[in-house]
Every structure is written in C-alpha cells, then in structure tokens.
C-alpha cells in the first residue's frame, strides 16, 4: 500500500501507502466547468464513456513520478483530463508526462516539494495559468516513513513524518480549495491509508499522520459540500509499488506474511487504487462527501 517498504516484520498490517491564505485574489475567475464529470444543474450525473469522463477538465496529481500517483495521472489522461503533474523528481515527472502524451493526452509537469507553501502555491498557479481552472486534485505525495513506537519516536522523526504526510496534504488542499471556491465546483481526493482507520503500534507517527488526513478530509468535506466541492480520501492496503516489491523480494518471510494477511491473497496494483481515485472525482460519485474509502482487498473488513 505504500511508497516506502515496511521496516518491521509485517505480522501487523501495512504501515504506509504509495503513496493558502484566506484571500482569493491570486486565483483566477473562470467560466463554468464542463459538465462531463460533474453534476448537471438538476443534480443528476451525466452519463459518459470512460474515455471522455473528464473532457475539458483539469486534474492535478501530486507524487506523480511513480506508483499510485503515476497510475492515477495516466488514468486521468486516458479519461480525457488535462493532467498537471507535481513531484520533486524531475526525471520521474517527465516520464509520467511522456506516458500521458504518448496515449494522446495532455500533461504539464511542475517540479514541486509539497511541504513548502510557496511551491504549493506556485503549483496551483501554474495549473490555472496554463489551463484556466482546476477541477480535480489527488493529494498523493508523501514519503520517508520514520518508524517507531510512541516512546521510540524522536521529535525529528515526528516532525518529518507530519510534514511529509499531513502538512503537505493541508497545504495542497488550501490552495486547491481557494481556486475551486472561485469556480464553485471541484473534487479532491487525499491519499490516506488503512493505517488512518486503525491503530498501528510500530509506526506511531505515520499512523497519527494518516488519521489526521482522514480527519482533515472529513472536516473539509463538511465545510465545502454546499459550495459544489467534494472532498474524499482513499485508504489503500498493500500496493505493488517499487519499494514494496523490492522489500518483498529481499525478505521472502515478510512477503509470505503480507500475502497471508491480505484476505484477497495478493497485493493491489497501483492501477486499482487509481481507478478508485478517478471514480471518486467523477459524477458517478457525486453523492460521496467526506468519505474515507478503503481499497484494501478486504483488510479492514
């Protein structure tokens, strides 16, 4: 489920997933959103083919250089969205952009450290400057889990994990919401984790951060639902990302335990998480607000 490979024996469940200001004057006033993936004025979702769900719309994906983020960016592109990619890895971001373009889509890569407020503001500004609006956002970036129990966790570990997995989501949501409020529409999905729905003793800071993402999602969902903006989260279980795959190959015992712990008997593919994100941003999920959706092969059942 995670961007980082677990550092402890996985007899307990997974420890991570792949993973503004009040003024609105810096955000652009734009025409109404195309109604291909949002609700019609009557509140009923329009039918659309998968390849045209997001025609004319703009989707932002952070942490888009690999894993869940890359799969989601590619899925948005295939569904007709113009995709804004944001992550620190220039090479990885450009590779994702090329994948989207090779499939006939349109992409803009913006190098971004989502823990830095000025860079997050510049990320949203770049999207709006290029495309005039922002319809969907997947706040996925995060990395570098510092593991340990409550007493083992240092202050440095705590701050690093909170910055990477919680503060970053808050910073992105602030800027995205400011633009979406100008438009009067939008959909945001945050990448949480099954560890945001349960306790995980071996990684207290990560567990707390992901619970924070779920709480932030619910609070924002309630706050902005009447402004035409939906906020939800996905909570992945184990996902076959490169770090997790490498960890399992290095540690056969851990691999066997992970597969035993998964009721479905396998890891998720990044594309399966991406499908849930794209659905949550589409008109098919127009009544989903403030929900933390497990995509976990039955892990939390």
How is this fold's topology laid out?
Elements: E1 58-62, H1 67-78, E2 82-87, H2 90-102, E3 106-111, H3 117-131, E4 136-139, H4 155-183, E5 186-191, H5 204-224, E6 229-236, H6 242-250, H7 252-261, H8 270-281, E7 292-295
Parallel strand pairs: 1-2, 1-4, 2-3, 4-5, 5-6, 6-7
Structure, explained:
The chain is α/β, with parallel strands linked by helices and 301 residues long. It has one domain (50-288): NAD(P)-binding Rossmann-like Domain (Rossmann fold, 3-Layer(aba) Sandwich), CATH 3.40.50. Helices cover 40% and strands 13% of the residues. Strands 3-2-1-4-5-6-7 form a seven-stranded parallel beta sheet, with helices on both faces. It is globular, with a radius of gyration of 18 Å.
What's a concise summary of this model?
This protein is of the alpha/beta class and 301 residues long. It has helices at 67-78, 90-102, 117-131, 155-183, 204-224, 242-250, 252-261, 270-281, and strands at residues 58-62, 82-87, 106-111, 136-139, 186-191, 229-236, 292-295. Strands 3-2-1-4-5-6-7 form a seven-stranded parallel beta sheet, with helices on both faces.
């Amino acid at each position: 489920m995670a961007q980082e490979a677990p550092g402890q024996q996985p007899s307990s469940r997974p420890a991570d997933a792949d993973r503004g200001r009040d003024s609105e004057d810096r955000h652009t006033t734009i025409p109404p959103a195309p109604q291909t993936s949002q609700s019609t004025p009557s509140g009923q979702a329009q039918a659309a083919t998968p390849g045209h769900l997001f025609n004319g719309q703009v989707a932002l994906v952070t942490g888009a250089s690999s894993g869940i983020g890359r799969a989601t960016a590619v899925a948005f592109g295939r569904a007709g969205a113009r995709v804004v990619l944001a992550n620190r890895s220039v090479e990885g971001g450009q590779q994702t952009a090329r994948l989207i373009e090779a499939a006939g889509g349109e992409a803009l890569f913006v190098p971004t450290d989502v823990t830095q407020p000025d860079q997050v503001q510049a990320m949203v500004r770049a999207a709006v400057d290029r495309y005039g609006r922002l319809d969907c956002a997947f706040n996925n970036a995060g990395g570098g889990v510092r593991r340990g129990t409550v007493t083992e966790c240092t202050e440095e570990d705590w701050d690093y994990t909170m910055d990477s997995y919680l503060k970053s989501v808050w910073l992105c949501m602030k800027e995205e919401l400011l633009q979406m409020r100008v438009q009067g529409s939008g959909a945001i999905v945050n990448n949480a984790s099954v560890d945001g729905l349960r306790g995980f003793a071996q990684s207290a800071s990560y567990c707390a951060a992901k619970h924070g993402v779920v709480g932030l999602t619910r609070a924002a969902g309630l706050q902005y639902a009447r402004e035409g903006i939906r906020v939800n989260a996905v909570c992945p279980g184990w996902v076959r990302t490169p770090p997790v795959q490498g960890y399992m190959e290095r540690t056969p015992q851990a691999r066997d335990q992970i597969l035993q712990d998964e009721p479905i008997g396998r890891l998720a593919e990044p594309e399966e998480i991406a499908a849930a994100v794209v659905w949550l941003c589409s008109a098919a999920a127009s009544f989903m607000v403030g929900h933390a959706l497990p995509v976990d092969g039955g892990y939390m059942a």
